[in-house]
Design brief:
Layout (H helix, E strand, L loop, with lengths): L2 E3 L22 H21 L8 E3 L1 H11 L5 H10 L10 H14 L9 E11 L7 H9 L3 E4 L5 H14 L16 E13 L10 E7 L2 E19 L2 E7 L5 E8 L22 E10 L1 E8 L1 H13 L15 E12 L3 E13 L9 E4 L4 E7 L5 E7 L4 E2 L7 H7 L4
Parallel strand pairs: 1-12, 3-4, 10-14, 11-17
Antiparallel strand pairs: 2-16, 3-5, 5-13, 6-7, 7-8, 7-10, 8-9, 9-15, 11-12, 12-13, 15-16
Helix pairs in contact: 1-7, 2-4, 3-4, 3-7
Length: 419
């Protein structure tokens, strides 16, 4: 019996989740600490893959957290501990796996913005489709619905139901991610998805006429990138050759953190000393003469093995891992995530699909700083209110188009549905 995890992280316009949740949300600081660790550990595992061809890593820690916290509802103690560890949580007084994951579900339930909010568009949306042959437990389905998830029962042998999944993904991503599964019959099981969409503008746009091609110094040599330019006041940090900037969006709830090395072009592993900067601590207000590349990236990642390496394996090997979901035993066979990220003169739009398919079986101003991000950099698109990291990763080569996954990875993921 198997559980194919295909959580759908989708950064797309969606309707807010309004279902009640009795648990109190986690503090933004605890969520951010866990999300920062998950981001760094997962990106490090992806970079180590011998078959990896892409110079870029783009992932959505928030989407992974969303779908795994939902699956925790039916997890046994061993899997619950593995999920907690894999998501980046650390032991602390008054915290354990059960309480943290329950509170994380409350955080996710309350995170979406009202559709009437003017400054940004942000939503999490969860959905679960269960094959009746998997013998789902009504109590687990009800608890999932209590979090705001859309839960339904339908046979996977009917291709129309698989098509519904892709239609759900496309709708939640504003068609940025049109599908996540090949439309063909699947073995009985469960498909859980988390959809996340974000779109917002800079408080003051970059002047498009000032955007021009400039050299970008990748690890393997120089390429040409479109660089945007602006002078403004930002939260800033510099230590030695490392420099970082926090770029807020309208409304100031969401920010884009960027960290680079101004002297050397580093691979992702070279940012280990500065990776913690993505939480925004130690920044001071500075006037900055800023140049950053605009880019559009699309990627697809197979995440099961990397997530096992950072903690999930301890629970994935349990024969009763999801005993609270269905009468038939389940195991994880696949975790897939698709992402879309666009940064330009106006602002940012992002989308990701992390689908889960379970198959049976302020400081005073000084001199202006100058920061030119013309070398590889790490980034995090953060939600200050919840601590969630909507998108993070490493940009080794700014591109426009589906190049973050080595060219055809995203399309390949869409066509592969065998557990």
């Amino acid at each position: 019996m198997r559980l194919m995890l295909i959580a759908a992280v989708v950064l797309a316009l969606a309707h807010g989740i309004s279902a009640p949740c009795k648990a109190q949300p986690l503090s933004p600081e605890r969520v951010l600490g866990a999300q920062t660790r998950l981001s760094a550990r997962l990106a490090a595992e992806l970079e180590k893959q011998p078959s990896r061809q892409s110079p870029n890593i783009v992932i959505s820690p928030a989407s992974i957290a969303g779908v795994m916290a939902l699956l925790d509802i039916g997890a046994d103690a061993k899997m619950r501990g593995a999920i907690w560890d894999m998501l980046g949580f650390k032991p602390a007084l008054g915290h354990d796996a059960a309480s943290d994951l329950k509170a994380l579900r409350a955080t996710i339930t309350q995170a979406p913005l009202s559709p009437n909010t003017k400054d940004a568009k942000f939503n999490f949306a969860n959905a679960v489709l269960i094959d009746p042959a998997a013998k789902p437990y009504a109590r687990a389905m009800d608890e999932m619905r209590d979090t705001g998830a859309e839960v339904s029962v339908a046979p996977f042998s009917d291709v129309a139901n698989i098509k519904r999944i892709n239609e759900w993904v496309a709708k939640k991503t504003e068609n940025l991610i049109p599908s996540i599964l090949q439309e063909q019959p699947l073995p009985p099981g469960l498909i859980a998805m988390n959809a996340l969409y974000f779109k917002s503008l800079w408080p003051q746009a970059f002047v498009a006429e000032q955007t021009r091609p400039q050299p970008f110094h990748t690890v393997s040599g120089d390429v040409e990138a479109l660089m945007m330019h602006r002078f403004g006041s930002y939260n800033f940090k510099r230590e030695g050759d490392f420099a970082a900037i926090e770029m807020p969006y309208r409304g100031d709830r969401f920010t884009l953190m960027l960290v680079t090395n101004t002297a050397r072009s580093l691979p992702f592993a070279g940012f280990s000393k500065a990776g913690g900067w993505l939480d925004g601590s130690g920044f001071v207000r500075k006037d900055v003469d800023l140049s950053i590349p605009c880019f559009t990236l699309e990627a697809g990642e197979e995440l099961l093995e990397p997530l096992k390496e950072i903690g999930l394996k301890n629970g994935a090997d349990s024969a009763t891992a999801f005993e609270g979901l269905t009468a038939l035993p389940q195991e994880i066979s696949r975790i897939v995530q698709k992402t879309y990220l666009r940064v330009d003169e106006e602002g940012t739009e992002a989308a990701a699909a992390t689908g889960v398919v379970t198959v049976t079986a302020a400081m005073p101003r000084g001199e202006p700083e100058k920061l030119v991000l013309d070398r590889p950099f790490i980034f995090a698109l953060r939600d200050r209110q919840t601590g969630l990291i909507l998108m993070s990763g490493y940009i080794g080569k700014p591109v426009t188009g589906p190049a973050a996954d080595g060219g055809d990875g995203a399309n390949k993921l869409a066509s592969e549905s065998k557990p």
